[in-house]
Amino acid sequence: MPDLSPSSTRVDLPQAVPVLAGRARMAWLAALVGLCAVVPLLNLVVPAGSLFHISDFMVALVGKIMCYAICALAMDLIWGYTGILSLGHGLFFALGGYAMGMYLMREIGLDGNYKSALPDFMVFLDWKTLPWHWALSHSLIATLLLVVLVPALVALVFGYFAFRSRIKGVYFSIITQALTFAAMLLFFRNETGFGGNNGFTDFKRIAGLPIATPQMRMFLFVLTAVFLLGFYLLARYLVASKFGRVLQAVRDAESRLMFSGYSPLGYKLTIWVISAVMCGVAGALYVPQVGIINPSEMSPANSIEIAVWAAVGGRATLIGPIVGAFLVNGAKSWLTVAYPEFWLYFLGALFIVVTLFLPQGVIGLVRRLRGQQP
């Protein structure tokens, strides 16, 4: 007879994996020190004529790309680990940006061109009062809450109906693209109170402090770096947990997962909302650094670019999409100046090459060259 004693039927459960260990921990700490201490020192303290000085242009460029990297990381959670390709994450990015932009427009106060308490575009359109959805825009605390809650609510409502209906694959991608396109058309309309095609710009202050000073610019840079590194830790924790293993089961064999007694709806909806909030926070950090937000941030092309960053860097690697965001946007920054007519061709060719020859992206290629498992 088979041995049915407790010792013979014991199952060894997976061991808890630390969020960061070994080289990963050292790399994370190096990034934290480099972005939050070394870069501010080289920009604010080292003289402009020095070889080691980091220019204001480079600080602004890296700060913007770090915002994009947060979006790429969010895309990896929903696409790389859950198998759900979203072509509408630009919507959540823009919603967070608009929430912050509304506050920054209120902070202009009487310093606008028309010397009115209303934003300049409202005075130009002969508006007499603020729309109802601007009611909390005077408060920084309320704005920070809205940066999180608005993308989360939109993602929750849309995701619930989409996932409950078991929409997946290319159909889900098309619906998300249609959603962000519809939102873009809505925000283009002047009567919605979001500045129409010009959006929001000409910001003066944030929390009562001038926004154009080197100190404020560096504060926003460091804050963006902290959020990027913090979201990376959160993502590592999520994918290493039981929750993350269920997400990967959704990606690899959702039907088998359901037969095992799991309901995918809650897991998919949770990671979808988390991913949307990450993009909303990225948008809120992006706007004061770039100085403008308009409906073009919701264009379907922007959402497709987010997927390209994740694919180029390497899906289901977490660090890969961050690397992809820096590589693609660094190339974009150079090509749009040197060869602006070739940028879109380069982006399309890059996506095709990565899809056909580098399915694990740049990180997968590096791991293969080092003899590691992709």
Report on the architecture of this protein:
The chain is mainly alpha-helical and 374 residues long. The protein has a domain at 58-298. It has 13 helices and four strands. It has helices at residues 23-44, 56-80, 89-107, 120-124, 140-164, 169-188, 214-240, 242-259, 264-290, 300-313, 319-338, 343-357, 361-369, and strands at residues 200-201, 205-206, 209-210, 292-293. The protein has a two-stranded antiparallel sheet with strand order 1-4. It has a two-stranded antiparallel sheet with strand order 2-3. α2 (56-80) packs across α11 (319-338), α3 (89-107) runs antiparallel to α5 and α10 (300-313) packs parallel to α13 (361-369). The longest helix has 27 residues, at 214-240. The model has no long low-confidence stretch (mean pLDDT 91).
